[in-house]
Each structure stands twice: as structure tokens, then as C-alpha cells.
Amino acid sequence: MDKNTYVVIMAGGIGSRFWPFSRTNYPKQFHDVLGIGESMLQMTAKRFQDICPPENVYVVTNKDYEALVKQQLPSLTDNQILLEPIGRNTAPCIAYASYKIAQLNPNANLVVTPSDHVVLKQDVFTSVIKEAVTAADKDDVLITLGITPSRPDTGYGYIQFIGDESQSIKKVKTFTEKPNLELAEMFINSGDFVWNSGIFIWNVKSILNAFRQQLPEITEIFEEGVTTLNSPQEQNFITKAYSQCRNVSIDYGIMEKVDNVFVLLADIGWSDLGTWNSLYTINDKDDNGNVIDGEVLLYDTKDCIIKTPKERLVVLQGLEDYIVAEYDNVLMICKKSEEQKVKEFMADAKSKKGVDYI
Fold first, then answer.
1. Sign of the dihedral through C-alpha 188, 189, 190, 191
2. Residues 263 and 175: beta-carbon distance below 8 Å
3. Are 23 and 72 in contact (CB under 8 A)?
4. Are strands 330-335 and 322-327 parallel, antiparallel or unpaired?
5. 304-343: b or e for each residue (b if 16 or more CB lie within 10 Å)?
6. DSSP β-bridge partners for residue 111
7. Would you call 106 helix, strand, or coil by DSSP?
8. Residues 6+ apart with CB under 8 A from 70
9. Cα dihedral 280/284/311/323 (nearest 10)
10. What is the DSSP string of 159-199?
């Protein structure tokens, strides 16, 4: 096991597209979404147990979720839990972790991953990550995992690559954020596009150099207080630093602009589990195409996803292609084809009914 390999798990998001199951005080990464006895965060940490030592796993999360992280990953020390005072998207999050780890090990290779993805092919994933780490350790490259698309999905970002078929790691030509269906179909048919997994691998020197080139203002902010990292003064500095950082993603701020970005094609049984439809897609269905997690009686109901409390009997009749989701004090019934409105429902619940419902 390589002691220069570090894993950074990003676990600060709210998961608003998964409302009402994902809530402000208990986002989806802390839930047992798949009903297997492990939260998404726990599954993510476990995924790396053969890739790096446990002391090299770091979690970046909102300060409000510190207790949840400690409860679910009790092996982490306080120094392995990075607390963001406010959400500022992925670039400041990655800068924070990168500078902190660089102070401990200037030769570190980082694997940066969201906390709410599903990987069904663990052995393949481990092999792919190790291949990417080896490449990042050898060359000044920024690598992202590209997922071979199984359908023209409009909910994912796409990466176009160049390079011959003998190369598993290919140079990135373009990034495209969530295209419309016609464009997604063109991407699939072209054969040189993959889904952007949002999982990154690079040497800490390479990513910090990219920050200096593309986001110099973030570099300046963090380098001002870099000596406080891994010390009792760290949190005070981070509170100040985040108040100065703008909201910017690593994709927009760096990956789409530098010329040393590569993609490693991977068939790892991946889903970002960002929406109710993505949960429906990866789950086993009954004979009528329903995904069920709860106590239910169904009549003339098909192609639905139903996730309700175990202590409540739910009876459904005559539904087709619906989401039925209940958690805490909210029940939502919505057409699967209209799931893009979930964020709108959540916003309306907050503005019209109050913060107790979000």
C-alpha cells in the first residue's frame, strides 16, 4: 500500500435533487440510500481500504456535519476532518485539502472523490485508481475518471477525448456540461465521449501549480496562512480564507482551462446517485418494474420508485412512472419524468412553509 497516496472525500453538499430524503441537517451522503446497512460516506471510505492507509483518508465537509462524520467514520482523527465554514464549491474545497496534505507530504498523490457515488465493480475500481496514481506520480498530469456511457443521459457532464485505442489514459479535448438529449445522443454515437465521474487523481504539486496558473486569487488566499494548517490555528485561518474565496468549481476553474488534463476510461459500475432516477436505474426491480424500499401494498402500479419509512404501511393504486418518497415530515409524489422539479419543490417548501421542511 502506497503511503504517498491520499484520499480526499468531498462530503459537504446538501443533495437537493434527492429531497425530501436528503435534508439540510442530514444530507444524502449520511443516509443508507441503498438499504445495505452503510451510508454513502461509509461506502466511499471503505472503497479505498486497499488503496491507501487509513490515516491518509481525509473528509472535507461543512462544519455543521462534523458530528455526523465522526459518528459514521469513528477511526478518523480530528486532523483528518476538514471543516468548511460555508460552501464555496469544489475549487476552494480541493485547495484546502491540497495545501493541508502538501504540508504533511510534499510528494503526495491525491485521489479526490465525491462522497455520494456508487461503484459496483470494486476490484476494477481499485485497479483503475492505482493505474491513475502511478501515472500522476510520474508525470505532471491532472487525471479524471471517464465512465463509458450506457445511455444518452442529460444529467451528466461529458468529456471528449483524443488518443489511440491502445492508450487507457487519453488526452482530454473538451468538457461539456449536461447537454440536451439531441446533443447527448450525438456524443454517444461519436464514440469519443465519456461521462465525467468527478473523481480526480493528481500529484499535489501538479494541482497546486494549476491553482497558481488558473486561480491565483485562491492560491494567494491559502498561501497566506499555509503555516497554520495542521495546527491549532487552522480553523480560524480557514474561516477567514473561505470568506474571501469565490464560489467556483474545479471543473470550471481549472480542468476546462489547462492543457495537461487526461481521462482514464473506466467501467467500474458507476453512478453518481444524484437523482431519484439514478437510484431507480441501479436498483433491482420487481416484476412490474418497481423499486421498493419500505412497507408497501401495490395495485396496478409499475415503473415507480418508492422509498418510505419502514414503520408506515403505504398503499398505492394506479401509479405508473412515479417517485413516492417520504422522510421525516415530508411526503413527495412526483412523476419520474419531471424529477428536475424536485429542487423547485424544495425551494418552494422553504419559502412557503419554512426551513423545517428542507
1. positive
2. no
3. no
4. antiparallel
5. bbbbbeeeeebebeebeebbbbbbeebebeeebeebeebe
6. 7, 201
7. coil
8. 76, 81
9. 20
10. EEEES-TT-SEEEEEEEE-S--HHHHHHHHHHS-EEEEEEE
153 pLDDT more than 90: no
Describe the strand order of the beta sheet including 322-327 as a list of residue ranges.
291-293, 305-307, 322-327, 330-335
Query: C-alpha cell of 95?
Result: 485547495
43 pLDDT above the threshold of 80 = yes
- Name the pLDDT band for 138 (thresholds 50, 70, 90): very high
What are phi and psi for residue 24, nearest 5 degrees?
A: -55, -40
Query: CB burial class (10 A; 0-12, 13-18, 19+) of residue 240?
Result: middle
H/E stretch holding 219: helix 216-224
Instruction: Specify the DSSP class assigned to residue 115.
Output: S
Please write the tens of the pLDDT for every residue from 223-238.
Answer: 999 999 999 999 999 9
Contact 50, 126 (CB under 8 A): yes
Strands of 226-294, DSSP E: 261-266, 270-271, 291-293
> Cα 30 to chain center, whole Å?
13
Q: What letter represents residue 174's amino acid?
A: T
Across the chain, mean pLDDT equals 94
Mutual orientation of helices 234-244 and 90-104 as an angle, nearest 10°? 150
The tens digit of pLDDT for each residue in 281-319 reads 989 999 999 999 999 999 999 999 999 999 999 999 999
Q: For 103-119, write each residue's pLDDT tens digit.
A: 999 999 999 999 999 99
The grid coordinates listed for 9 are 472525500
Rounded distance between C-alpha atoms, residue 31 and residue 94, angstroms: 24
Model confidence pLDDT, tens digit, residues 243-282: 999 999 999 999 999 999 999 999 999 988 888 998 999 8
pLDDT value at position 150? 83
Mean pLDDT of 34-44: 93
Give the amino acid at 158: Y
